[in-house]
Please model this.
Amino acid sequence: MVLEFTEAGLYCPAADVHIDPWRPVPRALITHGHSDHARPGHGAYLSTGEAAPVIRHRLGDIRLDTVRYGETLRIGGATFSFHPAGHVPGSAQIRVEVGGEVWVVSGDYKTVDDGLSEPFEPVRCHTFITESTFGLPIYAWTPQEALARDLNAWWAETAAAGKRAVLGVYALGKAQRILRLLDPSIGPILTHGAIEAVTEVLRAQGLSLPDTIQITAGTDLKAHPGAMVLAPPSALGSAWMRRLGPVSTGFASGWMRLRGVRRRRAADRGFVVSDHADWDGLNAAIAATGASRVFVTHGYTQSFARWLSEQGYEAGVVETEFGGESLDEAPEGEGAA
Model:
């Protein structure tokens, strides 16, 4: 096979490299900077140039080389290229060709153009390795315009009631996507340190994002009434949040499609949005590859693989340590004041 499924992760014998390995390996090709895909301890890393700043920010002084989207690299007996995955800025699908057989590792992806990440591009292949974080028909995302309208209406209503709107979002990708949808005329935008740190890295890359104010120990919160506050989900309900005074809490996640999840989190509002593909997105992406064989990694793996088999694909499940989307993202110590 072009790729093997090992205890360390996806392995290409022809090149002696791993893709998004979860155990330390000599050489790792990385699809994007989320912590379940870009892990410490590898001897050498390769990513897109757009993903590299966040990976360096998170992992420190590592040996990291970069590649342009679409650029072809020959490593040993295999040919590799990286193609936009639409998940977060710099995210990539990795195309691997050995002896005329082509496999594509999707990493995490979404097919909706969010105006922030490089838009998803289908890559033709014989075998496609897909996530299935939201691989059930119930999952369908709110269109961007409607999402922006709902977010800003909630913020304005909360500010008018004398409260702060506090929204739980991932520090990389989701936070910046939400930032692009907010209307700064409603009020100031405050951030948890974990979100501000990643946002600053992306700003330094040239991404245009609204102004934000990081909440620190010295921040005078009374000077910012009616603010929107962006924080990692793990910060909601913590001692950090109790400093904010009267609040209305919300979550921005694909899991908000499930009412029971929102109730368990005691959120006032849930916004159905994800940086992963929804049901229609997964099926459209797979069809566009032209692949006859599909391996399903994380999420609703068994049910999604069964569905693909019913559609005529040769489908199987691969166990990995990728995490998908969680409502409990940790701040990772990135300036989490």
Observations:
- Residues 144-271 form a domain with the Rossmann fold fold (CATH 3.40.50.10890).
- Residues 331-337 have pLDDT under 50 and may be disordered.
- The radius of gyration is 20 Å.
- The chain is about 25% helix and 25% strand.
